[in-house]
Design a protein that fits this description.
The protein has about 350 residues and is an alpha/beta fold. The chain has one domain: TIM Barrel (Alpha-Beta Barrel). The protein is about 40% helix and about 15% strand. The chain is built from 13 helices and nine strands. A nine-stranded parallel sheet has the order 6-5-4-3-2-1-9-8-7. Helix 1 links the parallel strand 1 and strand 2. The chain is globular, with a radius of gyration of 20 Å. The N and C termini lie far apart (about 40 Å).
Amino acid sequence: MPRIYVGISGWTYAPWRGNFYPQGLVQKHELAYASRRFGMLEINGTFYSLQRPSSFGAWYDATPPGFVFSLKGNKFLTHVRRLKDPHEPLASFLASGPLRLREKLGPILWQLPPFMTFDEERLKTFVSLLPHDTEAMARFAKKNAALDADRMWLEVDAKRPVRHAIEFRNQSFVTPKFIDVLREHNVAMVVADAASKFPSGEDVTADWVYVRLHGERVGHESGYTPEEIKAWAAKVRTFAGGGEPTGARRIGPAATPTPTEVKNGRDVFVAFDNTEIKQRSPVNAREMAEELGVGPRESVSEVLEMVSGKTAGVKKAVTSKTANKAATKTTKKSTAGARKRAAK
């Protein structure tokens, strides 16, 4: 059966404290809390710099069974090198600790900059190097990484699939050649809602799908409306069922599902990264998870009870009353805002 993971991009944002994060939750336990409200989280820190194996180990320990991380590929490779000469920076990224996530290692997201134009040969070289299982990942990293031994983690606890996705932001990628390259190497093209800032498409290029929702409209103060959540949820169900949404915005020809996809469907990862109004991401993600009937189902107070053993900074008087009051207030505000806009 296909699995649908719904989550958010990052978890350390000041505006979330006292809103998504209940008042009194100490900052060092925000990951433990967020990972029990969502089925996945994107790690943004890996984009800005190479992390240490100890960080990946700490992230693994803080999160519950069944949870997965998506990693953003390092910007030195995507934004500085623009995928040119990728062997060493790719290997160093892969060697820096992702294997410590073990079964919680989800997709690796390669987000390309708006100023990078489509270069078919350069893209082919890059995607041909991407390892598609943990053993291949360790071999490639060991051979090509340029890191000190204490900065690498090459242990493989089990052979597991490794998935890769590419998110483009330049109009030159809107060509069937781009789709062909990704399909040849089973790399997912991110289905992105980029608030009309960047071009995008809804082509299925792998045996799984990655959806990133940045915001339906620029400056949309309440994020996605209930109607927009339902519309995207319908697309996600179609992707998971092995099909393509009706009227999909394709760049290349329609995908031909494999017999396995027809029989078993596809895994789908959905990440909210509301660009303009970041604090709406967790609200919209919870609405999406509830619409799809997936992800952790515990209430705010139940989650706080789960992490209270680790969280000395949260008192029980705060956990049950303040947290649920804040969650109810946020939900009512979102609903009222949606109704107000609908009335206009």
